[in-house]
Amino acid sequence: METEAVNINEKTTCTSRRALMLCVLGWAWFGTMAAAYADEVRVMISGGFAAAYRELGPQFEHTSGDTLVTAWGPSMGTTQNAIPVRLARGEPADVLIMVGYALDDLVKAGKVVPGSKVDFARSPIGMAVRDGAPKPDIHSDDALRRALLDAKSIAYSDSASGVYVGNELFKKLGIEDQVKDKSRMIPAEPVGNVVARGEAEIGFQQVSELLPIKGVTVVGKLPDDVQLYTMFSAGIATGSKDPAGAAALIRFLASPAAASVIRKTGLEPLAQ
């Protein structure tokens, strides 16, 4: 192949083997330096929004040119990787994506920029059964009540959704005494895993956390009048080194462009 007539444009021309090599090395250097100086947006995020974020994050990186550096942890609690604990020990963050009321607590604690909070999705509680098992009707309060009374065993999570199921839902349905001996809270494990192993006939957790579990079928959401939604929100961390990048990511997650991905992961987008 001839290399003596390799023209990039009229102003920049590689007209010899040596010049061509210099051009190639120059572009390689430019690409390396551009990558080195690309903005990094540091994200702390809880598990409920994980499935949507794993798909939306690369989309944001592609369109913005920024790189997301992600740390995972619960929205609350005292475990080593909990978001409040990470912040307390000085881990850097630009964006916090977590349960809305827990984010409010961080605003009050001075860890989140006031006025930066944006709600972008809500997560309903759902019911799952083992793949191949009959799917009970839970479209109404009466149908849900019958399904719970007929079930041989019931499992629910140790998160906010499970606390609601165990402490409030059964009472609202008037069956607390009838189901207390066959229901249990599952600590530190997705409820779907317990159902998939056949250790519980039905399980309750946020739909977004049931859908990724293999071996279970999501029957549906709780009826509206006994439903409890968990809001997912984002805010800019105090001391962010890239507040503009943080704001751009939040705008993207709250935009109509992200809505279809959020919806298919079991969440309800709030984008208008």
Characterization of the model:
With 272 residues, this protein is of the alpha/beta class. Helix content is 39%, strand content 22%. It has a six-stranded mixed beta sheet with strand order 4-3-5-12-6-13. A five-stranded mixed beta sheet has the order 9-8-10-7-11. It has a two-stranded antiparallel ribbon with strand order 1-2. The model is unreliable at 1-16 and 18-37 (pLDDT under 50).
Please write out the topology.
Layout: E1 6-7, E2 13-14, H1 17-36, E3 40-45, H2 50-64, E4 67-72, H3 83-88, E5 95-99, H4 100-108, E6 118-123, E7 125-130, H5 141-150, E8 154-157, H6 160-172, H7 176-179, E9 183-186, H8 191-196, E10 202-206, H9 207-210, E11 216-221, E12 230-236, H10 243-253, H11 256-264, E13 268-269
Helix pairs in contact: 2-11
